[in-house]
Sequence to fold (1090 residues):
Amino acid sequence: MNVIILSAILGVIMMYTGVMSKNKSTARYVATAGILALIGANWLEFAGVNFFNIDTRGMLEFTSFGLVFNLIILVCTLVYFLLSGKDLEEVGANAADYFALIFFILTGIAIVSAFKTMLMLFIGIEIISIPLYILAGSDKKNLRSNEAALKYFLMGSFSTGLMLMGIALLYGATGTFYTDGMYLGLGNITVMKMAGLVLLMISLGFKVSAVPFHFWTPDVYDGSPTVFTSFMATIVKAAFFIAFLLLFENAFGRMHSEWQFAMALITAATLIIGNITAVFQQSVKRMLAYSSIAQAGFMLLAIFALNNIGKQGLILYTAAYSLPTIGIFAVLMRMKDYTYEGFNGFAKHQPLLAALLAVFLFSLAGIPLTGGFFAKYYMLVAAMKNGAMFWLVIIGVCCAAISVYYYFRIIQAMYFREGADPGIQVSEGFKTVLVLTAVLVIILGVHPDWLLHLLDN
Amino acid sequence: MSKLIYLVPLFPLLGFLINGLGRKYLSKSLVSIIGSGTILASFIVSLMIFFEVKAPGFAPQVVTLFDFIDVAKLKISFAFQVDQLSALFLLIITGVGFLIHLYSSAYMHEETPPHFARYFAYLNLFVFSMLLLVLGANFVIMFMGWEGVGLCSYLLIGYWFKNDDYNKAAKKAFVMNRIGDLGFLLGIFWMISQFGSTDFSVVFAGADGTPVKILTGITLLLFVGAMGKSAQIPLYTWLPDAMAGPTPVSALIHAATMVTAGIYMIARSNIMYTLSPVTQAVVAITGLATALFAASIALKQNDIKKVLAYSTVSQLGYMFLGLGVGAYTGAVFHVMTHAFFKALLFLGAGSVIHAMHHEQDIRNMGGLKKHLPITHITFLLGCLAIAGIPPLSGFFSKDEILTAAFLKSPVFWVLGVLGALMTAFYMFRLYAMTFLGKFRGTHDQEHHLHESPAAMTIPLVVLALLSVFGGFIGVPEVLMKNGHQLENYLAPVFAQSTAKMHEEHHLSHVMEYMMMFGVAAIILVIIIIAWNKFSRYQKTTAEATGLGRVLENKWYVDEIYDTVISRPLLGFSSFLSKFDKIFIDGIVNGVGRLVQYSSRQLRWIQSGQVGSYILIMVTATILLFIIQFFWKS
Fold:
């Protein structure tokens, strides 16, 4: 509850900051301080200190799972602000507004990590989505940015429609919005309930860019200003996943076997299409868009398996995927050339950045000693523990192998090709934050329990 | 003191690290001080341990450093065995090893500093590996050292890596050793499945009571390992080629380390061999055959180092004969005396080669007696020792093996003596052609003949003394009451085997005297013949014919291996390589191409048209409904 309210207030504060201060950087400092405050507030709530005692009539429930997830999200946002805050200011004249929108999104994320009714789920998802439409189109004079925003909005509306339809059907069938109340025993599965479930699966699948509802992803991610792509592809994506997982666990957990096969198909399609399509991309930015689809395939395994290891894995995945991706985007934003060739000879001119990028790419590819390894490992173990549909695990492993190809292309370009100096300037602070991020990624890869034991509280 | 056993291998390891890492910065004198000093330090510790072990009332100890492998029920610790056998080997390895290091510091003076340091680093690593091999308290640690010496021999044989022939010799040594190692490894695996452990204490205690068939299998596999490392038929061909390395390395490989590993391993696991008579017979026959075969080849070789190399193979054959007939003490005794005189001979040969400016062909030598007085006298003593002239060290150890062989079967004895006669002949052929007669080299070489520096002659003198007097620790019972100190010393190690070997019939004293001195007398005759014949040697251009030619070409064994094994193998491998390139690579690349192709095709779906996206999504939605309602798996 602390985060929901504080972050909404911070959003409002940010808007006023834009009006009050003419200095661009002020907004960034305020926002960074705000994130730190949110992390503190979240931590206090974790320790049992609530600032607000509001009776939500059971519509929201703050579990350690949700709070740990929030913690990761907030830390990722902090890293994002530190690394890319400056680039965010340069998108347009309204930096403070962008920060405000991001804080609103964080409010939405805090809601979807705690919802217990369909209403809260819907509100949370929309609170996240609507600011995203704006952010996608924030580069007003750029046609591609406008196109991205419009596409996202159109298709997002479509999926919102499906979601509302699904919720309505479920309400009609059970007479309640409460996910627990909807607990659908195996005995009374009606067509209405099943249809509602499928519609929710599709609309949330759309949000996490599961194949075949992923088409907006490459276009939107590619067209949006890179700084927002970074945010959308990592923090927001993870938030949709938490909503997906919590909904299917709380509302549909008991009829797991009923929808598992459909989920397996979606997961397999996401893994295969995401990875294979990423192979042929020539632009690193677009490759990262497909890579986000491919990684979503792995995260979907948690929902497919719906067990404790899967939940732990999703937590781990959120950190092990978001941090490296934010890091890579932060460097990418400074490049003039977004193609693989742009990275040629990068290691010679920027040895430190190249090494850090390599660590991040290792993590995305799931190489041991980085967080990505354990994240993938947990997902695959979760799917294996599930028992049924072992072929999904095999597909997962094969796809992990394919992913090495396109991630390592960057490493190859950086280390084994000759190229001109990209001439990028980075501050010492930027480097420090990037090093710390890489250290975090490696710690996750050596000792993932460090994060996971928080869940036991 | 035995708690400090880890210091013994630690010193050479440190030397290896310092010389290896600092090879670009250290001066040559510093390198040789570090290289030799670490071995000397090990020798001193070994000496202290030896005296502790030798003291009455010493019980064998296992010093565990840390747990190495701990999987399920299998527990292998990094532990060292301190007992009579390992203490004796420590002395041989570090003692002779130190002399060779010292000698090397002068012999290798032409090398540039980084290579000089590389040489000493390898040498130290070699000694370290050998110490590990001897000290291990289980077969796995032993195997680590076993592999280590294999690696180091490869590195040192190919030390002058710019010469491709040397590289080939190095590869040959490595491959031959690997074949043996495979046997050893399989033996260890079998051992683990049988005893659930590789600890000496567990395995040897469990050996009695294990079915003989299994024991035979394990011991035979271990013996395959020994054949590779100790150069027995059919895996001996690498050793003569190993001459490619610097001469002190040959001395190290042939005398103090490496080739004695197989002997050590069998002596260590003597109880297992005693309990499997079939293996024993195989070991004895292989050893005897190798002894004769290698000796016959040595008769006609003209390269000073080659003669010595085949002589090593032959002497190793004697040691295996000893092991095979149950004369474990005799075999270890011969390892020790052989270490003395073979190191002496090799270092002497090195001194000759040094003086002759890298000339190794004895046909071009002769008359070096007056130019190299110290080398000459020590070399002569070495030759007398290896030929088995009493009371030099070789006499006692060889006699012990031959006596034990006679007790097993007179045939063994007759053949063994024949080998000993050949040994005397080729050694004195070598000696006479090198040191006696007239100088047959070029004028230039003659002009530069000189005695080697002190760093080289001191080891020669020390080794010569050891070769002369080293045998007195094993004087047979007939000649002196309680003369065989070595037997008493080693008795605890072989106690289990001694208890098993019931048939203890002794020879009469007269018989024993006759055999001992009769053989010595014939050997003396042979020596005189060889001396006379080859001190008058003249260079001829006539090619050898008949058996001489076969011997000169080493029985054509290399050629036979080439035709029977290497070529078919190469043919098969080139077939497999084609199969790999066309079929396997085809699959691999095909998968890659398929992924790329589908990636290119899938791109078209991403058309950018929102309408078509939504169409696909609607289609997918309908499909999902169908699956969910009608086709649930």
In short: Residues 365 and 401 of chain A are 8 Å apart (CA to CA). Residues 143-174 of chain A form the longest helix (32 residues). Residues 2-456 of chain A form one domain. Chain A has a mean pLDDT of 91.
